Amino acid sequence: MLLDELESQSIYILREAFNKFERLAMLWSIGKDSTVLLWLARKAFFGHVPFPLVHVDTTYKIPSMIEYRDKLCREWKLQLVVGQNKQALKAKRTYPDGNATRVECCGILKKDALQAVLHEHHYTGVIVGVRRDEEPTRAKERYFSPRDKNMEWNVEDQPPELWNQFKTDFEPGTHIRIHPLLHWTELNIWEYIERESIPVIPLYFANEKGERYRSIGCYPCTSPIKSQARTVREIVEELRHNRTPERAGRAQDQESEDAFEKLRRDGYM
Predict the structure, then answer these.
(1) Fewest Cβ atoms nearer than 10 Å: which of 11, 79, 126, 267?
(2) Rounded to a whole number, what is the distance in angstroms from the first to the last CA of the chain?
């Protein structure tokens, strides 16, 4: 699929979501996918993002990620809502400096913090930058994906989606996840970043040690890969010959065979 077609489909989904759901927010992880999604939202609404961005801050992000987040918020005049599970952090229900496993820490610091933000601000729909090709569980998603009031996902009971016919009328109390990038690939993301000159965090580019991050998360659970790609063009060329899974550097995915699916069923991104 051509980049123009991918862009057009995503903008259509963003506008459809804005038209159908009253209290929307967009998750922004500060990574490449959610930043492309943010760029598309600015295109869809003519330079203005008409809903707040939610960033779930675990306090374990690499400091340059927070600097990048705050810089873009200032420059693009974005409304930012930061969620944080302060009770869990204080009680040390964390990894690696507490009494939680990696997967438990993800659930506590990300899922629970997100749920608290949604309840506090009464958001009924959340726009998320997940892609089908990133991870097998995400391949089971829909563009408009319903959750129950506890954000739990019944993967066996998803609405059919045929062409541009999306189900957007759900029972009261249903929480909706909207996935405008579902049909994109990792290569598409970087090709689009190159075409649009989208500013991304420098951690994606190879440093003097010949290492870069391919997928960015919390620093205790995310490792860089060996790479000499120092520009977007070099990343694009690298990906065209790479068969290593995108999330190979995310340690929490390796903790148990079905860890990520359990997290997503419970409401994780």
Answers:
(1) 79
(2) 25
Q: Fold for 3-185+256-265, please state it.
A: Rossmann fold (3.40.50)
Q: State how far the Cα of 171 lies from the Cα of 124, in Å rounded to an integer.
A: 12
DSSP H helical ranges for the chain:
3-20, 32-44, 63-76, 86-90, 102-106, 112-121, 186-196, 232-239, 259-265
pLDDT of residue 60: 94
Are 267 and 154 in contact, with CB atoms under 8 Å apart? no
Reduced to 3 states (helix: H, G, I; strand: E, B; else coil), residue 52 is: coil
Domain residue ranges of the chain, discontinuous segments joined by +:
3-185+256-265, 202-253
